[in-house]
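Fold this: Olfactory receptor
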Amino acid sequence: MAHQKNQTLNVEVLIVGFVSLTDYRIPLFLLLLIIYTLTCIENLLIIFLVCVNPRLHCPMYILIGNLFLCEFLYTTDLVPLILHHILSGRPTISHLGCSVQLSVSGAVTIVETLLLTLMSYDRYLAICKPLRYSALIHNRLCFYLVIVSWFISLIFATATFYFVINLEFCGPLTIDHFYCDFTPYVSFACSDITPVVLIGLSVSITVTILPFVLIVLSYVFIIFTILRIQTSEGRKKAFSTCSSHLLVVTIYYTALFCLYVMPRSDQYLNVYKGLSFIYFSVTPMINPIIYTLRNQDIHKALQATLSKMKTVYC
């Protein structure tokens, strides 16, 4: 049994998602490096602004700061190793590395889903209960909810890591993807995968489907409230307060559901890989743009920070 365990820990997983793109290795590396660099700059800049500007110390921006921390962690969990694989031409990952990658990406996805749900509730209160907004959600409550979200994700991540790291594999593994994908990886195991499957199902139901239902319900109430506003200017102003979040939620769940529903057969494999590439690289880059493009609070916070830095260093 110990020999089998040591053998499993030494298993190397061959990641062959880029094999068909070998001729475009350098352009692909540069493209992904640029996307990753922009993603890091955008997300870390907004996190920094939320931390240092008192005017952004409110529930909505606390949630946004944590959301972009998730985006940064998710893309950092995957992209640097993918860049290494593209450049080195030796796309392998150990069983331990794969277990860590799966656990981190799963945990971050859970937190992001819960944060998007809390943000929809925040927008519901801001539009449907404006007079009671400060009483129903405030910084301390928001802070506690964020901690609970990270704690829930930590529990699931720990459980996922424990069950995945204890899987036994009987031979070499090859995954036709850009990273260690959960479903094909687990399917290669020659030991009982029931606990891992149950963890995946519980995550899908409790922290993916249920939050989606809550988000939809929030926006049903928001839309009804906006439609009851008599002036077109008032409706436009109310909708503008939640349009960025609605667009991000739409992109997030569309990509997520497509990845879950998309068949893994050879016929659809390239489409699935393309959607995955967009999900882990492009989406974390465009989400900060969506939130900040017309956000005057972020613009003013950036201007104030730049002015303060200019005063200090000049």
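The mean pLDDT is 86. The longest helix spans residues 194-228.
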